[in-house]
Amino acid sequence: MKFNVLHTSDTSGRRSLIETAHGKINTPIFMPVGTRATVKAMTPEELEDLNAEIILGNTYHLYLRPGMDIMEKAGGLHKFMNWNKPILTDSGGFQVFSLTSLRKMKPDGVEFASHIDGTRFFLGPKESMAIQKVLGSDIVMAFDECTPYPCSYEQAKKSLEITLKWEKISREQQLQSHQNLFGIVQGSTYKDLREKSAEKLVKIDFEGYAIGGLSVGEPEEKMFECIDWVVPYLPKDKPRYLMGAGTPKQIVECVARGIDMFDCVMPTRLARHGSAFISNGKTIPLKAGRYKEDFNPIDKNCQCYTCRNYSRAYIRHLFNVGEILGMRLLTTHNLYYFLNLMKQIRDSIEKGTFSEFRENFGK
RNA sequence: GGUGGGAUUGCGGAGCGGCCAAACGCAGCAGACUGUAAAUCUGCCCUCUACGAGUUCGGUGGUUCGAAUCCACCUCCCACCA
C-alpha cells in the first residue's frame, strides 16, 4: 500500500492518495458500510456510480454467515460480492461493544454467543486475523475492544491494556501479501490513556492508524478533544481513520483535525428509516405527512440520481406504502451526499479554501 | 313482507355487568439512530386549566349500588327466505 500526501492546508487537514492492490483511494474519504457483504440496498454498480472508492465488511458478521468455508470457496469477499475496489474489514472489535450482553471477555479474546442462534464461539486477535485473511480485504483492522461511553478510568485503562496486547498479536499474524493492517487507538476519553495508546501503537508499526471508541454517545466536543490529543502522535506519512463517525459536521471538523478516512452507518441506516440529508448537513424526515404534496426534489442543489428524477412526495409515498424503492432512492441520495461532501472537502483543500468551506459549512 | 345477525374512540376490530377512556392492527403525529442484532426502536394518538377532571361505545327510555356490556322501543346496515 502506498500513501502520499498531495496537499496540506492551514488546518491539520490534508488531501492524500492511498494506492492498494484493488485501486486508489482519494482521501479524505467516506467509506460506505457493507457489514454483511452488501451496502444495504445498493448494487456494487450503483456504488461505483456514486463514486464510492472503498467499502467496509465485517469479520463477526461474515464469520457467522455465510461462514468461512463459503468465503474460502468464493475466493474472498471481493469476488463473493462482486466489488473489485478496495475493501476494509472491521475486526469484530465493535461487536465487543455493540453486543456486550452476548459476550464474555477472556484474556486472549472474546467469547460470543451468536446473536442469531446463541451458538458460542471465540474471537480473538488470532481468529480475527485468520478470518480477515480469508476475506482478503485490502485494509485489515486489528482486534480491539471498543469501550462504551461513559467509561470509568479504571475500566478504560484495563481495556486499553488488553487491546494493546491484542493489537500486538494481530500484528504478528500472517496476512495475504496485498493486505494492510491498521492499529486502533483506544483509551476512552482520558488524555493519558489515548496518548499512551497512540505512542505504543506507533511503536508496533502499522500501515495506518485508526481512532476507535468514539462516536459511541460522547458529547461532540469530547470527540474532537480526543482526536486533538491523538493526532500529534500519529505519523504524518500514514493514513488516519476515525472509526464509526460521523455526522456531516463532525466529518468536516475531523478532517480539519487531521483525519483521512471515515465510515459511518448513518447515511444508509437513516435512509432506510426515511430520513434524507440536505445541504446544511441536517436531515428531513420524508415519512412525515407534510411532504405528501411536496413535488420538489429532496434537495434542489443535489445532483444525485434521486434528486434529478423524483419528488419528496413520491418518496414519501413509497415509504408510506412500504415499497423497497423508497429505501433504495434514499440510500442513493444519502450516500451521494456523504461522498459528495468528501469531494467538496478534497477540492477545497486542493484549492486552498478548506478553512473557508469549514467556516461556512452548515450555514 | 319474514327470520336471523349487527351498529364501539379516523378506518378495521376486541370487549359481553365493576379491574374500560375501552385490547390490538392500520392510518396520523413527534423523536431516536455514529467501526449495522436496525426496511428498526420509543412516545403520543376523546377533551381539558392535564401525576387530576370531564364527556364517550347508533338514539331514547329502563333494570342495577354500578351498563359499551342486561331489557324495551326506534333508526340504520348486512345475510338468508318469500
Structural account:
The protein is of the alpha/beta class. Helices cover 42% and strands 19% of the residues. It has helices at residues 44-49, 59-64, 68-74, 77-81, 93-98, 125-135, 153-172, 191-204, 220-230, 248-256, 266-272, 305-309, 312-320, 324-351, 354-360; strands at 2-8, 14-20, 23-27, 29-31, 55-58, 87-90, 103-106, 109-113, 120-123, 139-141, 180-185, 208-211, 240-242, 261-263, 275-277, 283-285. The strands form four sheets. The chain has an eight-stranded parallel sheet. It has a three-stranded antiparallel sheet with strand order 1-2-3. Strands 7-8-9 form a three-stranded antiparallel sheet. α7 (153-172) links the parallel β10 (139-141) and β11 (180-185). α7 (153-172) runs parallel beside α8, α11 (266-272) runs antiparallel to α14 and α14 (324-351) packs across α15. The model has no long low-confidence stretch (mean pLDDT 97). The chain binds one RNA strand of 82 nucleotides through residues 31, 33-36, 40-41, 56, 58, 61, 88, 90-91, 93-95, 97-99, 102, 115-116, 141, 144, 146, 184, 210, 212, 214-217, 223, 241-247, 250, 263-266, 268-275, 285, 288-289, 319-320, 322, 324, 326-327.
